[in-house]
Fold each of these.
Amino acid sequence: MRALVISGGGSKGAFAGGVAQYLIENKKLDYDLFIGTSTGSLLVSHLALKKVNEIKEIYTSVTQSDIFNVCPFNIKRKSGIETISINHFNVLRNLLSGSKTFGESHNLKKLIKSHVTEQGFNALKALKTDVVVTVSNLSLNQVEYKSIKDFDYEDFIDWVWISCNYTPFMSLAKKDGCEYADGGLGSMVPIEEAIRRGATVVDAVILQTEVTQYNRMPSLNAFSLLTNMFSFMLDRIEFQNIRIGKFVANNQDAIINFYYTPTVLTTNSLVFNKDKMTLWWQSGFDFAKHKNQETSPVEPEKTE
C-alpha cells in the first residue's frame, strides 16, 4: 500500500504540487492513500482524481483576496524582500465584530467549494483510494484525521477548510460543538497516521529544508514577531512528526521517501505571490525528477 503525505506550509504548497505532478504523471505511481495537512489538504482531492493541471492552475493564480475576506496584515515589498505589518483597521474591525481571530478566511472556503464540486466529491468517494485531511481539535486537545469515506460533501468541504485555518490569523471554526484550527498545530507531517492506516511505502513531501537554515527575517514589529513565533513552533512540531514517523516506519518495516525543499522558498508562507508560486511548482517538479534520476531504489511489490 502506497501513501502520498503532504505537509503544511501555506503558499509553499505549490512546491508540493510540482513534486506530486512528477510522481503521478511521469513516474506513474498509483497511491492508495492521500493524506494532507493544511496546504496539503488543498492538494490531495485533485491529486487523487489526477486533476493535476487543474490544481496547478489554482495554486499558481491564487491571491490574498482569494484566501482572506478580512486580511489581518499589510504586505510591503522592498528590494525584493516581503515584510508584513498589522492592518490595524481590519484587525480592530474584526475584533469589535466579535471575532476571536485577527483575520477571516471565509473566501478560502468559497474557493475550495468552487473547485471541489459535489460531482468531483462523489467521484472521489467511489474510488478505492482514500483521501484524508488533518485537523486540530482545540476543545478536546487532540489531532483528528478526517477521511472522505466518512462524510458527506458539505462536511468534507468544512474539514478541508478547517485544516488550512492558521489561527489566529485565519478563521476559528466551530463544528460538532468543538473549536477547530489548522491541522499543522498538531501534526504537520502525518507520516505516522499513513503507516497506521496500512501504508508500507510513504512518499512524504516536507515543505521545509532538510538542514536547518536561517529562514526568517528579524522581527520588525509585534505582528511579525507573532508570525515568527508560530513558525518556530510549527517547525518543532514538524521535526517531531518526522522523527516519530521514521521510528514507526522502522518498527513496521515501512519505507519513507522524503522530498524536502532544496532551498528556503519564503520567509512568510502566508504571502501568496503568483509569480513565485509558479516558479515553486516547477522547482518541485524538477527536484522530484532529479531525485528520482539520482536514485532508483528497488521498491517492494505493492500490496492491497
Amino acid sequence: MKKLLLIVCICLAFAACKKETAATDAKKTDTVSAACAKPKKKFKMYEMSELAALMEQMYAENEQLKQRIIKGDTVGSFPQHIIKIHSAAMTDESDRDAFFKENAAGFIKAQELIYKDPKNAKQHFNDAVSACIQCHEGKCGGPIPRIEKLYIK
C-alpha cells in the first residue's frame, strides 16, 4: 500500500512540473512572438497566366507524344490549340516582342513537322524541344531543366 501511495505521489509531482513548464513555455513563446512579430501581409494566391497554362498543357501533351514516338505508335494529328501561343495572355505583355514571336513561330513549325513527317518524328520532336529551350534561354530560364527531360535519346 505504501508503494502504491509513493508511486501516485511521484506521478502527481511530475504532472505538476509538466503543467508549470508548459505554462512557462507558453509565456516565453508569446513574448518572443510579440517581439518578433512582422507586419501581416495579405496572402495573394498565384494565378497562372493563360500562356503559362497553355505551356503546361503542351508539356503534358508532349510527354505523351514522346512515349508514343518511342513505342512507334501513331502520333495523331496536330493539336490546333498550340497556335494560341501567339495570342494567349502573358504575365507580362511586354515580353510579347519580336524575339518571342519568332521563337513561337519556330516552335509551331517544328511541332507541325512531327505530324506531317511521322517517319522522322523523333528528330522533329527533339527540334521542337530545342525550340522551347532556345526561347526560354532568352526569356524565362526557370523551366529549362524540366523541358530538357523531354528530349528523346
Amino acid sequence: METTLYLTPLKKAFKNAANKQNAIGMKAYMLNQFEFYGIKTPERDAIVKLFLKTNRLHDYSALNKVVQWMWQQKEREWQYAAIDVFNSHQLLWKTSASQLIQFCLTHKSWWDTVDGIGSDWLPKYFSLFPNKQIPITQRWNQSNNIWLQRSSILFQRSYKKNTHTQLLAEYILQHQSSKQFFIQKAIGWALREYGKTNPEWVLNFIAENKIAPLSKREAIKHLNN
C-alpha cells in the first residue's frame, strides 16, 4: 500500500479546512514550535472520523508506515490525527508497537502529543501486552528523555483501583528532585488522579516523601475539598 495515496483524502480535507487566522493563534499557543493548518479540534475530529469510516488499514506494517509518515509532517494536525488513526486500529497492534509508541513520544515531543499518547495508546497497549508494562516503563523512567520519564509517571493515571502503587511510588521517587516543570507537574497530576481513588495513600506518600512544592500543590488540589 502506498502511504501517501492512502492519506490523500485526509490531506485534501485538511487543506480545505485550513484557516490561516486560527493557525497563527495555535502556533503562538504552542510557543511557535509547530506549524498548523488552523483546524480546531471538533472540526479536525470530525474530518478524521469521516476519513476512518471508509479508509481502513489491514496489517500492522501499513499502519506503522502511515503513522510514521503522519508524525513527520510539519503541520501539528497530522500528529493529532496519527494518534486517532493508530488508536482506531487497535486490532492490528503487535508487541512491537512499543517501538512506534516510543518513536512518537520522542519525536516532535511536547505535552499535547505526549499526553495524548498517554491517554489513548498506553493503557490499551499495556492491557494487550501486560508483560511489557514494567520492562518498558522502567526503561522510560530511567532514561534521560523527559517525555519518556513523564510517560512512565503518568501512564497509570486512568487505572484507579488497579494502580500499581509500588511502581507509581518508585517512578515518582526516581525524579522527586527533578527541576523540570513537566516532570514536577506529572508527579502532581499522577498523585492527584490516584487521590480520587485512594486519598489516604496519596496523603501518606506526600507526608513521608519530599517532592517539589509544585508537585505537592497539584497532588492535593482536590483532597481538601
Amino acid sequence: MNLHEAVAKPQGRKNKKRVGRGMASGMGKTSGRGHKGQSSRSGYARKLGHEGGQTPLIRRMPKVGFNNPFRKEYVTVNVARLETINEGTEVTPKLLKETGMIKKLGDGLKILGDGELTHKLTVSAHKFTKTAVEKIQKAGGEIRVIE
C-alpha cells in the first residue's frame, strides 16, 4: 500500500463542534454550557482534581508509608553468579557491569551468600553478607570492602 492509496473511512472522523454559531447550529443559545453557574462563564477552567466542593479523592485517601530520601539502593549479586568468572580474577563492580551481570551500580554492590563457589576469587564490593564472606574465604578467595 502506498501513501496515495490510503483513504480515510467515511465514519472515521467527526465534524468539529461549532459552538456559538446561532440557533440553527444545534448548539444554540447557551452553546452547550447549560444555564448559569461557574462553568457557564467565560474564563472558566476546571482545576485538576476539583470535584465541585466535595473533598477530592486525593484528600479522602489515607496517608500510607514513608519515603526515606536518604535510602541507599544496593545492587545485589549472589555468590553462585560469581562461579562463572575465571579463577584468580579480581571481581569489581566495574567488571560485573562490563560482563552484564549488573545493569547499573546504584549506591553500591552487595554480595549475597546464595549458592556455592568452588574457585579462588578476589572480590571487591561495598557490602557482604556473613555467608558470602564464609563461602568466598572457604574457596580460598579474598574480600575487599570498598568505602
